[in-house]
Amino acid sequence: MIAEALGGSGRLAVLTGAGISAESGLKTFRDPGGLWQQYRLEELATPEAFRAHPERVLEFYNMRRAKLSEVHPNAGHVALAALERRLEERFTLITQNVDDLHERAGSRRLLHMHGELKNVRCVRCAAVVPWTAALRLGDRCAACQGQLRPHIVWFGEVPFFLDDAIPAALAGATFLSIGTSGTVYPAAGFVAAVKAQGGLTAEVNLEPSANAELFDLQVLGKAGEVLPTVLEAIGGAQAPA
Ligand code: OAD
């Protein structure tokens, strides 16, 4: 059903959240045992927290960056990369995730709207630098000596690609949301934006998300179990470009 509905349409925009990486062993934020159940986001994920307790904030992201070397893409990530190879420029993947599992699975048409753990950024000149080690307070920008910070969008900051690539990806597209609770805006508003343009919307999630009523179709289940079949069917049903 979902495949027939999504197949044959022009372009597909996919939004992923922490749920797609859960089966790889990365904690989500709001599920039982999730990061924001364990830690207070106000103390770790805001510019104010970084000013007040920079070492504590760096440690949180250092821990999460280090964890990336212990995990691998799962069948959900792999299925999305396979669909991208089939649809090419008709496909865009927007992720709220700051892990690198999509790119390690082969995704290339990928927008990290909340930043990336594998990069850091200069607070002075905004240069973005690849970073795999722990980030320390004394680590400085090679270009201007400014303090380096995690390349992460904190609460109160503006996500990336909102002015250009994301509206372009959503315009006239079918929209598929995967593994996100639908509680953090602006990403949680993409489904309404697509619906307002008359686009078809679908979600794959373990449980109905906060904005479940805005989706035309819903598949409840684990992304790694459900996506290989669903996305293979969507790819097969797509009309040739
Ligand atoms: P959440 O933790 O809010 O939601 C994860 C969603 O994934 C929940 O709806 C789960 O039911 C679902 N889920 C869990 N395991 C799953 C699985 N195996 N397959 C499919 N779904 C599964 O995470 P996000 O919605 O991604 O922002 O959170 C959005 C943003 O809030 C994050 O990007 C982060 C956080 O604060 C920043 O840090 C800026």
Helix/strand order: HEHHHHHHEHEEEEHEHEEH
- In terms of DSSP E residues, the strand content is 15-25%
Question: How much is the radius of gyration in Å?
Answer: 18 Å
Q: Which outline best applies?
A: globular
Total number of domains: 2
User: Which compounds are bound in this model?
Assistant: 2'-O-acetyl adenosine-5-diphosphoribose
- Arithmetic mean of pLDDT: 94
**CATH homologous superfamily title of the largest domain:** TPP-binding domain
The spatial strand order of the largest sheet comes to 3-2-1-7-8-9
CATH topology of the largest domain: Rossmann fold
CATH architecture of the largest domain, by name, is 3-Layer(aba) Sandwich
Characterise the protein shown here.
This protein has 241 residues and is an alpha/beta fold. It has two domains: 2-26 and 73-114 and 159-238, Rossmann fold; 27-70 and 116-152, 2-Layer Sandwich (SIR2/SIRT2 'Small Domain'). It contains eleven helices and nine strands. It has helices spanning 2-6, 19-22, 35-38, 41-44, 47-52, 54-67, 75-87, 101-105, 165-170, 190-196, 223-237; strands at 11-16, 91-95, 110-112, 115-122, 128-130, 148-152, 173-178, 201-205, 217-220. The strands form two sheets. The protein has a six-stranded parallel sheet, sandwiched between helices. Strands 5-4-6 form a three-stranded antiparallel sheet. Strand 7, helix 10 and strand 8 (201-205) form a beta-alpha-beta unit. Helix 7 runs parallel beside helix 11 (223-237). The longest helix has 15 residues, at 223-237. The two termini are 22 Å apart. The mean pLDDT is 94.
